């Protein structure tokens, strides 16, 4: 045990003549190095905190202002307009201070005040500039003179080397839309989904809402927007995620895959060693706020608040609501393997364990042949089942003794690692390999991932990796940012030896990983088994299909002068209609991170324009020109809705918050109740990639990720995640439920493929359409280059 290893360095013997104390030089050295590292870390955090606090100015600018004011003491020019003299006359204890000293102190105080004034002036000027969103509504490739001027001013005020949180105080607040605008957009969004009678009824409900409850609810919401940094995010986290009492496995958690084509090493322990070390490097930069903030157009900053809880974070179950527990400076990792939990220290001598040292520690776990303790193997099933049984079991069985100590170790860990026993990954020779891989990441065996941790890293015997992410603390782009950094660092910076091991010498003197100890009663084991059976039913019901669309990609879509996202969303609408024969309420996730503490907004993709296009595609009498015109109109409509959502003028978050206010006030609103009860039968999301541009995928085309996915939102609907990979590949992750007789993920995937090809054919001659259907489009594109 680690504790025993530490103890041998500290021994004492009580003798008649006193105490004989012996200290190990190695232990003293480790203590010293740990202390030095801790103080160094605090110093860097303090320095970066100061740099962030005074941004967009710098501490050196304070010195410049002070020198300028001091120089005025020796000239006849008084830039302070008499304020320095006023300060000098009102200094405390002025009788004890010489006239010259008082003059210097007064100049320094005035200079400091002037410097702080200019900081706030620059910051609020930048906030006012960032509140302008006209640039996002301009046509792609075209930029007006006013936008160019605005962009130049933002660049000028943004400073040269911003840290991760430098822009936080300069980001504008999310605006509260006008009720009339939101209701108008809502009615427009449901018009294609309702018949005339249903639509007229909805119009009446909306009209009654505007005339009665809306004004009062809106006033409270505006008041909250003035007081809170974001009027949506805290309620969204609490009521959408934390108050849900259903299992978070499948229903909430999502996953991200490894490289699609590349496996850097086939040694499980080595790959885990490199990846964990890369994560520790990322965490160190995160703690020091040394990551560069993400910026649209390379200039417009995005909110970084969600990144704060990436590590050392756990969702704690409660009877009525869960909480998110975030700790700081956690130095250990919990590893699960073959039903056993191990604690692995991540530091030695004040530094991170090296990749080779981590590989050795993980190999020790893989070589361990000990058996699980009673109830230990399926313990994590508690986090996969319903929340209330888990909350009660936590209070009853894990609030004292060994169980509490071990549970605290899990919940306080930096993150959770599972060393899986079955190989996974994409294999072109196995059509269902992506399906099995996705289901493994999404739910596994229902007891081999700790679904409450901010994320569980999963390592497979063939060297493949993946992560399962708890959703309440952040959205997909946040964990995607970290995952891009880790994969690039793993392959292009750390690397492996010729034998596939981590580079570097192996330190075999490290203390071995320690087993967590449990005393799980038979009664508690029954609760665990019930949670497992509940989770197993949910997992077995997931119908998953992973699909690589390689006929064409972003490169060709852009040549059609349309947005790749709008193209795919319209293909999904066409596929949905062909699959179900009806249109449905469609959810697409959009980000609102241009605002402080922003998270997401909903884009309602099933528009009247999209419906008109789909009907034309299914109408044999419609010409190609008519279909193309309708497609372009629908694509433009979708893009405009996406832009509105990004700039705070969406529909659903506003209505959601109005509904929450109504519940607090005890006001019954038939309109809001109806809106919030509508099911999203098609839920979609695009997984972002190349946020960091650490890997040139044109130079290394095999080093691309497969994206990620999530479970179905509706029992009789589909969940579709897609990632646009480079110029020539789009991956789709499709989920539904076997229990629904109306859905089939594989069938829906085929509808998507056919819809993509049919839409692209609107821009191509008929002979090239047939070539695409036969998978020969790449050959035609190469031929065109040489024409």
From TrEMBL:
Q: What class of enzyme is it?
A: transferase
Question: Which GO terms fall under biological process for this protein?
Answer: carnitine metabolic process; fatty acid beta-oxidation; long-chain fatty acid transport
Q: In the Enzyme Commission scheme, what number(s) does this protein have?
A: 2.3.1.21
Q: Which residues form the Carnitine O-palmitoyltransferase N-terminal domain?
A: 1-47
The record's annotation in InterPro entries points to:
Carn_acyl_trans (IPR000542), CAT-like_dom_sf (IPR023213), Cho/carn_acyl_trans (IPR039551), Cho/carn_acyl_trans_2 (IPR042231), CPT_N (IPR032476)
Q: Which PANTHER family match?
A: CARNITINE O-ACYLTRANSFERASE, CARNITINE O-PALMITOYLTRANSFERASE 1, MUSCLE ISOFORM
What name is this protein filed under? Carnitine O-palmitoyltransferase 1, muscle isoform
Q: Record the organism.
A: Fundulus heteroclitus (Killifish)
């Amino acid at each position: 045990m680690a504790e025993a290893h530490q103890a041998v360095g500290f021994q004492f013997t009580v003798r008649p003549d006193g105490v004989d104390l012996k200290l190990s030089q190695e232990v003293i050295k480790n203590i010293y190095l740990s202390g030095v590292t801790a103080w160094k870390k605090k110093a860097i955090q303090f320095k970066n905190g100061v740099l962030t606090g005074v941004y967009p100015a710098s501490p050196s600018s304070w010195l410049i202002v002070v020198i300028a004011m001091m120089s005025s003491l020796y000239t006849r020019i008084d830039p302070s307009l008499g304020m320095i003299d006023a300060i000098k006359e009102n200094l405390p204890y002025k009788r004890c201070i010489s006239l010259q000293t008082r003059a210097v102190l007064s100049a320094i105080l005035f200079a400091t005040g002037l410097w702080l004034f200019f900081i706030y002036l620059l910051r609020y000027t930048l906030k006012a500039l960032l509140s302008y969103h006209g640039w996002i509504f301009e046509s792609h490739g075209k930029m007006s003179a006013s936008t160019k001027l605005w962009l130049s001013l933002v660049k000028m005020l943004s400073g040269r080397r911003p840290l991760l949180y430098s822009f936080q105080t300069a980001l504008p607040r999310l605006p509260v839309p006008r009720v009339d605008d939101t209701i108008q957009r809502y009615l427009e969004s449901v018009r294609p989904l309702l018949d005339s009678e249903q639509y007229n009824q909805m119009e009446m409900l909306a009209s009654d809402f505007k005339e009665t409850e809306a004004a009062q609810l809106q006033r409270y919401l505006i008041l909250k927007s003035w007081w809170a940094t974001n009027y949506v995010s805290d309620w969204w986290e609490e009521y959408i995620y934390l108050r849900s009492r259903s299992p978070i496995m499948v229903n909430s958690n999502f996953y991200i895959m490894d490289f699609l084509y590349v496996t850097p090493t086939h040694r499980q322990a080595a790959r885990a060693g490199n990846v964990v070390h890369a994560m520790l490097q990322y965490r160190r930069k995160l703690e020091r706020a040394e990551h560069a903030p993400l910026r649209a157009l390379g200039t417009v900053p995005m909110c970084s608040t969600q990144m704060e809880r990436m590590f050392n974070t756990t969702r704690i179950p409660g009877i009525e609501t869960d909480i998110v527990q975030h700790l700081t400076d956690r130095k250990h990792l919990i590893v699960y393997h073959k039903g056993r939990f191990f604690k692995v220290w991540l530091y030695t001598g004040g530094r991170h364990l090296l990749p080779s040292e981590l590989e050795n520690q993980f190999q020790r776990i893989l070589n361990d042949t000990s058996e699980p303790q009673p109830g230990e193997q399926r313990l994590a099933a508690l986090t996969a089942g319903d929340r209330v049984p888990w909350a009660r079991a936590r209070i009853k069985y894990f609030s004292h003794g060994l169980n509490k100590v071990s549970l605290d170790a899990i919940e306080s860990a930096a993150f959770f690692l599972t060393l899986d026993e079955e190989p996974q990954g994409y294999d072109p020779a196995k059509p269902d390999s992506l399906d099995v891989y996705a289901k493994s990441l999404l739910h596994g065996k229902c007891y081999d991932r700790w679904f409450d941790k901010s994320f569980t890293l999963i390592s497979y015997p063939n060297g493949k990796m993946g992560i399962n992410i708890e959703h309440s603390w952040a959205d997909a782009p946040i964990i995607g940012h970290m995952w891009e950094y880790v994969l690039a660092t793993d392959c292009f910076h750390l690397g492996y030896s010729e034998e596939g091991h981590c580079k570097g010498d192996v330190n075999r003197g490290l203390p071995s990983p320690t087993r967590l100890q449990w005393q799980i009663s038979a009664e508690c084991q029954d609760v665990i088994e019930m949670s497992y059976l509940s989770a197993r039913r949910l997992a077995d019901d997931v119908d998953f299909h992973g699909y690589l669309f390689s006929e064409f990609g972003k490169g060709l879509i852009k040549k059609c002068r349309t947005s790749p996202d709008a193209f795919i969303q319209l293909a999904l609408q066409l596929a949905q209609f062909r699959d179900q024969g009806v249109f449905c309420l469609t959810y697409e996730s959009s980000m609102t991170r241009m605002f402080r503490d922003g998270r997401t907004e909903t884009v309602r993709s099933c528009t009247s324009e999209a419906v008109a296009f789909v009907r034309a595609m299914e109408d044999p009498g419609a010409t190609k020109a008519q279909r193309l015109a309708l497609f372009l109109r629908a694509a433009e409509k979708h893009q405009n809705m996406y832009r509105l959502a990004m700039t705070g003028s969406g529909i659903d978050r506003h209505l959601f918050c109005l509904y929450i206010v109504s519940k607090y006030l005890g006001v019954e609103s038939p309109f809001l109740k109806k809106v919030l009860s509508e099911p999203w039968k098609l839920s979609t999301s695009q997984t972002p990639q190349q946020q960091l541009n650490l890997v040139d995928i044109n130079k290394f085309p095999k080093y691309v990720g497969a994206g990620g996915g999530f479970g179905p939102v509706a029992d009789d609907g589909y969940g579709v995640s897609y990632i646009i990979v480079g110029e020539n590949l789009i991956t789709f992750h499709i989920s539904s439920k076997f229990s629904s007789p109306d859905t089939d993920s594989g069938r829906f995937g085929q509808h998507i493929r056919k819809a993509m090809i049919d839409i692209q054919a609107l821009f191509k001659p008929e002979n090239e359409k047939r070539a695409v259907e036969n998978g020969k489009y790449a050959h035609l594109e190469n031929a065109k280059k040489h024409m």
